[in-house]
C-alpha cells in the first residue's frame, strides 16, 4: 500500500491550478446553508425539493412538503409555468406548569416556480398530498390538430 505525505509544496499545486476559488465558494455556500436556519422572516422561506418525470400524457411532480397541511398548499398553473407555495403556521403550545426553554420547530414557508417544456392543461391537473409529499399530475394541453383543406 502506498502512502503519500502532503507537504506545503504539494498543496501549492491545488492553489496554482485555479481550483482554490471554486472550492472556496463551495465551502462558503455549504457553511451559509448549514447555519441558515434562523427565526428571521427573510430566511424562513425554504426552497422546495422536487422530482419531475415525463410521461406520455404529461408530467408528474413529487415535492417534499414536511409538516404542511393540504389546506396550506397553493398551486398555480399558467401555460407551461407551475408555481407551488405552502406555509406552516407556528402554533403556540400550552404547557401545564412549565415553560418552553428551547424551540426549533417554527413556521416555515416553501416556494418553487418552474417552467416545463409544454403548455399544461390546468383544468385536468390533479394534486395529492400524502405523508409530506405533494404529487402533481400535470397533463399536456391538447395540441391543435392541423387539418389540410382541399381546394374546390
From TrEMBL:
Q: What domain of life is recorded for the organism? A: Bacteria
Xref: Pfam families: HSP20
Gene3D superfamilies, per the entry: 2.60.40.790
* UniProt keyword list: Stress response
SHSP domain segment(s) = 39-152
Q: Which InterPro entries does this UniProt record tie to the protein?
A: A-crystallin/Hsp20_dom, HSP20-like_chaperone, Small_HSP
Report the family membership: Belongs to the small heat shock protein (HSP20) family.
The name this protein carries in UniProt is HSP20 chaperone (Small heat shock protein)
Biological source species: Thiomonas arsenitoxydans (strain DSM 22701 / CIP 110005 / 3As)
Amino acid at each position: 500500500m502506498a502512502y503519500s505525505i502532503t507537504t506545503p509544496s504539494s498543496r501549492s499545486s491545488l492553489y496554482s491550478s485555479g481550483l482554490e476559488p471554486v472550492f472556496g465558494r463551495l465551502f462558503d455556500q455549504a457553511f451559509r446553508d448549514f447555519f441558515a436556519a434562523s427565526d428571521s422572516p427573510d430566511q424562513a422561506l425554504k426552497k422546495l425539493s422536487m422530482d419531475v418525470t415525463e410521461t406520455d400524457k404529461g408530467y408528474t411532480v413529487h415535492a417534499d412538503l414536511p409538516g404542511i397541511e393540504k389546506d396550506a398548499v397553493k398551486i398555480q398553473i399558467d401555460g407551461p409555468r407551475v408555481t407551488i407555495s405552502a406555509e406552516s403556521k407556528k402554533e403556540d403550545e400550552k404547557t401545564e406548569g412549565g415553560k418552553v426553554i428551547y424551540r426549533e420547530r417554527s413556521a416555515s414557508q416553501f416556494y418553487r416556480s418552474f417552467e416545463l417544456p409544454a403548455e399544461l392543461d390546468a383544468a385536468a391537473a390533479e394534486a395529492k398530498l400524502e405523508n409530506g409529499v405533494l404529487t402533481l399530475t400535470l397533463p399536456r394541453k391538447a395540441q391543435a390538430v392541423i387539418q389540410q383543406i382541399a381546394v374546390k
